[in-house]
Amino acid sequence: MSAGHAGTACHPARIAILDAIRADRTGPVPVRLLQLSRADDAFVRREVMDLLSSSGAGHPWPEAAEVALARLTDPDDEVRRRAAYLVVRSGSSDVALRALDELTEPVVRTALAEWLRGSVVHLQGDSLASVRFLARLEALSVAPRQQWLPLDRALLADAREASRRLDGIGWRWGRVLYGLGRERHVYVLVARLLADPATRDIGAGLAREACHDWRAAPVELLPLLVRNCGRDISPAMTKALTTASLSEAAMHTHRALVAEVPFPRYPKARRPSGRPRPSYDSTTAAAVLEAKPVGIGRLLQAPEIFGALLEAGPLTFRQAAQLYNLTFQRSGRMQAMCAPLWLRHAGPTALPRLLALMTPHLGDYGIGEDYSEGLARMGRHALPALPSLTALIDRRTRLPVNDSTRDGETMLDERLLAAAINARRAILAASHVAGAETP
Fold first, then answer.
1. If we measure between CA atoms, which residue out of 271, 270, 221 comes closest to residue 245?
2. What is d(CA 407, CA 264) in angstroms, rounded to the nearest whole number?
3. What are 178-191's pLDDT values in tens digits?
4. Is the predicted pLDDT of residue 10 greater than 60, yes or no?
5. CA–CA distance, 230 with 219 (Å, rounded to integer)
6. Do 178 and 400 contact (CB within 8 A), yes or no?
7. 195, 289, 305, 397 - which has most CB atoms within 10 Å?
8. CA distances in angstroms from 435 to 385, 425, 430, listed in the order given
């Protein structure tokens, strides 16, 4: 335990301990852990609180709740925080609420209120600002529209004092406002918080969360962040500026303003360009396909190979079968690459089926860019896909994507948005040219 292995995610020692607890809470491992909750070393006590919480899976565990209650008065702040979480996770909400009512220590009371969530709505008049703030956030999350502004004023009044005990106030507030769909209200609150040096970092946190949630937020908030960042940019402000700079629209709109402020830009990953693609003529392309099975599922240079063949004339039956399998057997990058080729082979009658395959994937963070690029290559034939592209482009909120960080998720949305915009532009441009050439 003291070596720290049990606190390392996926370490065999941690897995073994958690498995032993889940298998039998009365066994020697959990019994020993409960005893170690009174160890002299604060590090050991922290790890015990963490392991007991991680193994409980949210089910009542009276013995764990009992040792956690005893640790709510621990001399170590982090032990107390973890003990508060364990009380809520392994006991009943009544036990945790009773502790919240009886104790006076701010760290413990704040942690208990944080984990009790909706159970603390009645504590909006509590003596501790951090508890009041959490209670009012919970109230706001379910409040009718007519109660929003009074709760906003109360939260603003408590924000500065609450931040002394509660981390991430801006992030927490932003999540609630996003759930209520209050985009314009977020911008007003950010402006008020940034204007006061005492709440500037809270405003930066709220602004950053807004940029993660709303596509228009960086354009709206980047000027406010720049004007209020001060000469010594705080870590919270730096993070907010970095997140806002992920937006291509914001950086284009406020290019001159942003150039005046030094802050780290988010590293924007580029799609691998790879080695130069080989060129094919109809003979070499045919030879490649002849060596591949009819049921081929992947062909890296499919656009070049089939493109060379289609330039030379119709595909053979076998080649068409190969292209069919690449196009229709499974969704993914290969399908997106091959769909325009199948359109060239089969003609406009294939278009409805192809678009039905492609448009549902435009917002997929793994392959959406490929499908937008495929539609762009279809040119004017992809005109029926414009409503799907436009719906993706016109979203006010970020697309639901999955990455290890919120900034990474925002970047994925930005990339999908850029790909959709480029596809729509290409389709409309091709349609305009085609229209101009029509007698």
1. 221
2. 13
3. 999 999 999 999 99
4. yes
5. 20
6. no
7. 305
8. 18, 15, 8
Asked if residue 141 has pLDDT above 60, the reply is yes
- pTM for the model: 0.89
Token pair for 338: 């091959």
The torsion of the CA quartet 345, 351, 357, 362, rounded to 10 degrees, works out to 110
The token pair at 336 is: 């997106």
Q: Cα separations (Å) of 174 from 129, 189, 249?
A: 18, 10, 22
Structure tokens at 324: 């069919």
Per-residue model confidence as pLDDT tens digits over 186-227: 999 999 999 999 999 999 999 999 999 999 999 999 999 999
Cβ-contact 6, 43 below 8 angstroms = no
Report the amino acid identity of residue 51.
L
Q: Are 185 and 153 in contact (CB under 8 A)?
A: no
Cα 265 from Cα 244, distance rounded (Å): 9
Please report, as a single letter, which amino acid is at residue 70.
Answer: A
The one-character DSSP state at 197 is G
Q: Is the pLDDT of residue 439 over 60?
A: no
Q: Using CA atoms, how far apart are residues 17 and 234, in angstroms rounded to an integer? A: 41
Task: Decide: 323 and 342 in contact? Cβ < 8 Å.
Answer: yes
